[in-house]
Amino acid sequence: MPLRRQISVLSTRLPQRRAIFTTRDIQHLNATVNALVHVSKTPQTTRHDGALHGMTLAIKDNICTASLPTTCSSAMLAGYTSPFDATVVELLRDEGAQIIGKANCDEFGMGSLNVNSIHGPVVNPFQPTDAHDVPLMAHEPRSAGGSSGGSAASVAARLCTAALGTDTGGSVRLPASYCGVVGLKPSYGLISRWGVVSFADSLDCVGVLARSVDTVKEVFDVISVYDARDPTAASPELRKRASSTAESCLPKLFSSVRANTLDGLRIGVPQEYFPLELEPSITSSLRTIIRNLKDAGATIRPVSLPATQYALSAYYVIASAEASSNLARFDGIQYGLRVPPPAGASRSKPSNVYAHSRSSGFGREVRKRILLGTYALTADAFDNYFLQAQRVRAYIKADFNRVFRHPCVHLAHPESCLSADGVDVLLHPSAIRTAPRLAEKRECDTSSIDEYLQDVMTVPASLAGLPALSVPAGLGEDGWPVGMTVVGQWGTDQLVLQVGRVIEGIQ
């Protein structure tokens, strides 16, 4: 029986909330998708009265778990097991969730296609409708997206009910789009990052992936609590102010969206989110969604975010600079893989000692970003690159604040940016194309920047710290999934989820 058919049969025999596979089943079904790199051998004892009792989850390999290794898909941390659980894992366990394993990812979260992993690439488990009788192993393999490709693939392959990933510049939304599942990047600071191995501190967010918006919301409601151990966590006062501000501005809107109508909702479509690289079939899917939204009562308005054209460049400068700082600790002496210098090598400088460990432990993509980030922080380049990127980031935030009709509570005087003509949420394609073939990645490995262009639709919301939800929106011309993203003002995550739920239901 084809693998996809096996998955479908097994997953429909038991309620969605239940652990539908044994460890042996998971390992067998995972063999051709490579979504999980560590599988729990025995089910964990969980609360029977918890909000998530019976729900199975996969945890991205850069989120610490005491019962399973945390390697960040890197040789630098091969075999490492954390002595503690990350806050988000603690919260899930406390509410009865069962952790089935650790999900494959790009090394230290650096990548858009989940091919930069010591465990090998993740294969997209989606099966086009004209190929249901063809075993998945006989398909031309396509990328599951990155860096949270293993999390998205484990959900799409029905190995678990939901999964946690991390999103720095689109690492949850891009895999969600490619695999045909729902992916949420929350407002920056709402979900604790304590116990998450850092890539870029000012950008990293823990995200949630599932097959429905309702399931994403269930998990999000459990883990979006204040954690004093996380210095980047939004304070309880700020959370309350954001929630009350949104509801005071949009009281009728919240009630109408909950009733599956969009009366009074203003949706903005950014003009800058239609680059030349965007596949025509994705534009067609967006038009269909817009027509359905209009029929549901929403008002559609074109908006302009002119700083978007600089977002990708600014993102890679900032993310690489922060990565070079965060990964400095992995030197084979304090942390990480230890590779002794070869016989006769000079040990007069510390760098001569740990360079061998870092060269062996880090993969090519990580080494590249560390070098770029270190250069951006040097005295000669700091003003021209890092500070300039931070200025662009401020412009991007100002762009978003200008088009939303409710203010950003982070500002000293939020009422100063209140726009009576603004929109409630933004809608745009999640990616410029459907899932690329893994063979295409191998062909362009040496010099192409195509992989970096995958993030062009997702990085603006990351730079601004805004909530963004990718929802499946049909299929492209090639029969593979297309995703649409809903973006809201900071702190309006519940509104974004409700709008995503309506979009999910009107297709």
Automatic annotation (TrEMBL):
Keywords: ATP-binding, Ligase, Mitochondrion, Nucleotide-binding, Protein biosynthesis, Transferase
SUPFAM superfamilies documented for this protein: Amidase signature (AS) enzymes
EC nos: 6.3.5.7
UniProt subcellular location: Mitochondrion
GO biological process: glutaminyl-tRNAGln biosynthesis via transamidation; mitochondrial translation
Pfam families: Amidase
Gene3D superfamilies: Amidase signature (AS) domain
The keyword 4Fe-4S is annotated on this UniProt entry: no
Catalytic activity: L-glutamyl-tRNA(Gln) + L-glutamine + ATP + H2O = L-glutaminyl-tRNA(Gln) + L-glutamate + ADP + phosphate + H(+)
GO cellular component: glutamyl-tRNA(Gln) amidotransferase complex; mitochondrion
MF (Gene Ontology): ATP binding; glutaminyl-tRNA synthase (glutamine-hydrolyzing) activity; transferase activity
Domain Amidase: 46-497
Superkingdom of origin: Eukaryota
Active site: 60, 147, 171
Assembly mode: Subunit of the heterotrimeric GatCAB amidotransferase (AdT) complex, composed of A, B and C subunits.
Similarity comment: family membership: Belongs to the amidase family. GatA subfamily.
Function per UniProt: Allows the formation of correctly charged Gln-tRNA(Gln) through the transamidation of misacylated Glu-tRNA(Gln) in the mitochondria. The reaction takes place in the presence of glutamine and ATP through an activated gamma-phospho-Glu-tRNA(Gln).
Name of this protein: Glutamyl-tRNA(Gln) amidotransferase subunit A, mitochondrial
